Amino acid sequence: MGGRQSKTAVLGVHPTPLIKTDGKAERRKKFRSLRSSGTLASFDGSLINETWRFTGGGKRIHNLKNSKSVAPLVEEIERLQRQHRLFKRIWQNNFSAPIEEKLKSGGIRVLDVGCGPGTWTIEMSEAYPLSSFTGVDFTPLFPQEGKPTNAKFIQANILDGLPFLDDTFDFVNMRLLVTAFTTAEWEQKVIPELIRVTRQGGWVEFMESDIQYYNEVVTIMKSKGIVTPINSYVPKSMEANEKFVEGVQTEEKSCFVGHWAGELGQMAVDDITKGWSAVKMPMSTLMKVKSHEYDEIVATFAKEVEQYKTYFKTWRFFGQKVVTTASSSITSPSQWQEQSQSP
Q1: 213/194 Cα distance (integer angstroms)
Q2: Is residue 142 within 8 Å of 117, Cβ to Cβ?
């Protein structure tokens, strides 16, 4: 990777608070601290986990078991579809692993974990009609009708285990979900489970967006988050698993944020502000601010990205599963507890 740029927090990228009265500056500072420290990812209490769920885009929506209304789901589906278009524009493609020729030839089985409304899955199935695609998400935002014949969707939560045998898929894809898990979940359940269902010689790919933002201000926020910085944590956690071939590959892109950067920048700021609006309830509770104060903070962020030429980074990390001479034993998620309890 190249030289590191100055880091700032998600909201309020100016080093000196613009609002200095009535405690607003202190609340903005608290928000920056929560965001840059990865609080949402590392928070182990029940507030967020009981009230919100994660979708395929790594964003939280109402927990269907605890919510009396599913109205937010329609807006969330539309937002995730726009988010897919944003990252497709940034990357100019849907994946980076070296599998395109095999996808074209056909017979390749692909798994999209945390598929959300299934936008990536359907787009891929249409582009490669000779291969098959399966999307999984524990919130059923995906379509069951009107989809390509080589695409299907299953409701499942990776933390409970994926409903597939070992060595099932040639390519396993997961996007924008690393901050949905604690480090223990990520390292002990998520990565091992993705590797388990990947065929020997197959590929696993993650696409992630930085949880920090960058601009021209020379301010460095020390990260205390459990998964930051993402661009080093993800590949290191992959390489720590002995079933990955040595040398996990990384690709990086940057995206300017704000109307000043044209259509793509406008798409980016819209996605970010709508994402933060989607988690207003848990975040405002954690920050101990009122709803309208939270809205003001988000609005301030939208203004400051225009002034300070903010941008963010996104990465793809992809690694290949090792090929062994011995066939791997068939395991199931129910064996996790048994294995963890064995001496």
Answers
A1: 29
A2: yes
Distance CA 88, CA 92 (A): 5
Residue range 229-286, pLDDT digits in tens: 788 889 999 999 999 999 999 999 999 999 999 999 999 999 999 888 877 887 788 7
| Total residue count of the chain as it appears in this document | 343
Strand-pairing partners, residue 214, are 7, 311
Strands 249-256 and 311-320: antiparallel
3-state secondary structure of 249: strand
Domain 7-341, second-level architecture = 3-Layer(aba) Sandwich (3.40)
Q: Which residue has the tokens 């979900």?
A: 177
Are 334 and 160 contacting, i.e. CB atoms less than 8 angstroms apart? no
Residue-wise pLDDT tens digits, 103-112? 999 999 999 9
Backbone torsions φ then ψ of 108, nearest 5 degrees: -85, 135
Name the token pair of 328.
Answer: 């791997």
Per-residue pLDDT of 27-49, as tens digits, reads: 444 434 443 333 333 333 333 33
